[in-house]
């Protein structure tokens, strides 16, 4: 059995908790929290909730620690800190800061002779893998990544910071016409506006100026100004009833040519349709926890990404079974 | 530069020849043939065509030998034979015989301290990878593989063996309704007939009994009897004009659930749309040739499949570049 620890019990941590139950070679040893452990009730009976202060004493009881904090402030500190003591997996997803994060985690993991897998999930993660496979198979071609339809946490937060807004949720929606243009093999150059629509469901405070809120959202730089944005005002009850789930998904496409005269076109398309973004991400983390455990047993220490993990490490099946059943 | 040799100059070998030109870190050293080398003209100027008898003398001049023969009779002999002397890549695609092929190649490659990658292409190959990734992320779910629309060589050959048939081509077509049922998340049980249609374009000999040919095709066990089969009779000119390309493609889907009560559904879909089946397969072989070369340099000898190759080995980019640009 691979003994897993979870650090952080938000949506992602809860997703890891349920994913472990779907993997018979794994068990949940403990959930760690920075809060008072007694204030936290988890759904796995008999599994202790412990303080992060207890973590260092658990070095021999946990094979892989899955870090379920956020990329803004938690993981930049936690992953280097715990990679000295544990094999770890994180879902660090601030793309621009991955090189910096990698360097810090690499040092820590090598010092502790541990294996640390960073930026695991679906983007970065499965989408990155598909970009890589697409690029190496069709070196002359073009990459396209579309996100959605799904809830963007960052954009929902941005809406909620607007004056007069009580609550809100934002959906990123890929533009079907843009997807079709890519699928046609015409290798279009697509602007930000052509690729995605942003749809906002906003609960306004009583008496707020709706026109002002709408204008402020639509003109918000970086977040909305470069997009066609739709704003709906709804009640708190409607938001709760119709928009409380966390779906997401998207597309990675690679369009390229082969042949002596580049006369043959090819399209590779990878698509995800997810009812629960955190539970799917958690499921990817758990599969890579298995890989971290095994790679460490083989002495493959240091910081790794999905690019460095041979797929066979992810499966509980033997090489023989994999070749027989899945190849 | 990675020095590549090609053994066999059919459609696949020609595809490897053109794919090498799209990879600036590779060069084609020689094409080997069992025929009289003087009878063969290749499209790469200045590249020698040599006899397979010359292969053993080329051990120091070739980094990876790409085996472009067929799975029925060529590869079962050639891959074990040449894996003793060269790093090799093959596209062995007789699924049921992969374990046996693996054992033989493993022995040979270990004896020669070479790296042999077998069953590389898209199925087995990229489709296998997507089956594996889908299974490990969503352990509670169902796999679906659909092929087409594309030309099946085996079924085209079967048509041509029917009495009174001069020439013919068969397309495997996935049934859209079955794909939609899978995409709905209903996890349908699909029969062979429900998944694929077989469409045949047949050129009959003069005076042949068309009704008899059609019946014989439609009732052919293994090949057509379990499918809804459509037979069109056309002229040799029409066959030449409309059906001389070799498109193919298909879909791998994984439909599964997560959550404490398995309440959330997820769908992973991978799709290929290929103008040229052999050129796409060749492009995959060439990317894996890079991996074979590198893994051998690191001492990773023996027989491997796509499951054993960390994705980073496939790319000419450094780990740093990959993390920065594709993660």
Which secondary structure elements does this structure contain, and how are they paired or packed?
The structure is a homodimer of 327-residue chains.
Chain A: E1 2-7, H1 11-20, E2 26-33, E3 49-51, E4 64-67, H2 75-82, E5 87-89, H3 98-112, E6 115-117, H4 126-137, E7 141-147, E8 150-151, H5 153-160, E9 165-174, H6 176-183, H7 192-195, E10 196-204, H8 210-218, E11 228-233, H9 236-242, E12 248-258, E13 264-274, H10 277-297, E14 302-304, H11 319-325
Parallel strand pairs in A: 1-2, 1-4, 2-3, 4-5, 5-6, 6-14, 10-11
Antiparallel strand pairs in A: 7-12, 8-9, 9-10, 12-13
Helix pairs in contact in A: 1-10, 2-3
Protein model, in words:
The structure is a homodimer of 327-residue chains. With 327 residues, chain A is α/β, with parallel strands linked by helices. Chain A is 33% helix and 26% strand. Chain A has helices at residues 11-20, 75-82, 98-112, 126-137, 153-160, 176-183, 192-195, 210-218, 236-242, 277-297, 319-325; strands spanning 2-7, 26-33, 49-51, 64-67, 87-89, 115-117, 141-147, 150-151, 165-174, 196-204, 228-233, 248-258, 264-274, 302-304. In chain A, the strands form three sheets. The first copy, chain A, has a seven-stranded parallel β-sheet with strand order 3-2-1-4-5-6-14, sandwiched between helices. In chain A, helix 2 (75-82) runs parallel beside helix 3. In chain A, 52% of the residues are buried. Chains A and B meet through helix 1, helix 3, helix 4, strand 13 and helix 10 of A and helix 1, helix 3, helix 4, strand 13 and helix 10 of B.
């Amino acid at each position: 059995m691979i003994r897993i620890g979870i650090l952080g019990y938000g949506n992602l941590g809860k997703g890891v908790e349920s994913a472990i139950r779907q993997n018979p070679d794994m068990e949940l040893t403990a959930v760690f929290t920075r809060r008072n452990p007694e204030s936290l009730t988890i759904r796995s009976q008999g599994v202790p909730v412990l303080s992060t202060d207890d973590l260092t004493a658990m070095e021999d009881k946990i094979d892989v620690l899955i870090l379920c904090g956020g990329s803004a402030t938690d993981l930049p500190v936690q992953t280097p800190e715990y990679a000295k003591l544990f094999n770890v997996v994180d879902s660090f997803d601030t793309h621009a800061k991955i090189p910096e994060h990698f360097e810090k985690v690499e040092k820590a993991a090598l010092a502790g002779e541990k294996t640390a897998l960073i930026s695991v999930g679906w983007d970065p993660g499965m989408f990155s893998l598909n970009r890589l496979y697409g690029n190496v198979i069709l070196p002359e071609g073009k990459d396209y990544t579309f996100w959605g339809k799904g809830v963007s946490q960052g954009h929902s937060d941005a809406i909620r910071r607007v004056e007069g807004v009580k609550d809100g949720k934002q959906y990123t929606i890929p533009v079907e016409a843009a997807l079709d243009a890519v699928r046609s093999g015409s290798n279009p150059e697509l602007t930000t506006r052509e690729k995605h629509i942003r749809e906002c469901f906003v609960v306004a405070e009583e008496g707020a100026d709706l026109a002002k809120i709408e204008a402020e959202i639509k003109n918000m730089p970086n977040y909305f100004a470069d997009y066609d944005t739709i704003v709906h005002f709804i009640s708190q009850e409607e938001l709760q009833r119709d928009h409380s789930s966390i779906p997401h998904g998207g597309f990675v496409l690679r369009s390229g040519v082969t042949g002596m005269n580049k006369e043959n076109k090819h399209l590779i398309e990878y698509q995800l349709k997810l009812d629960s973004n955190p539970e799917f991400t958690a499921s990817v983390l758990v599969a890579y926890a298995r890989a971290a455990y095994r790679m460490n047993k083989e002495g493959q220490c240091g910081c790794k990404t999905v690019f460095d993990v041979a797929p066979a490490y992810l499966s509980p099946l033997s090489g023989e079974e994999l070749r027989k059943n899945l190849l």
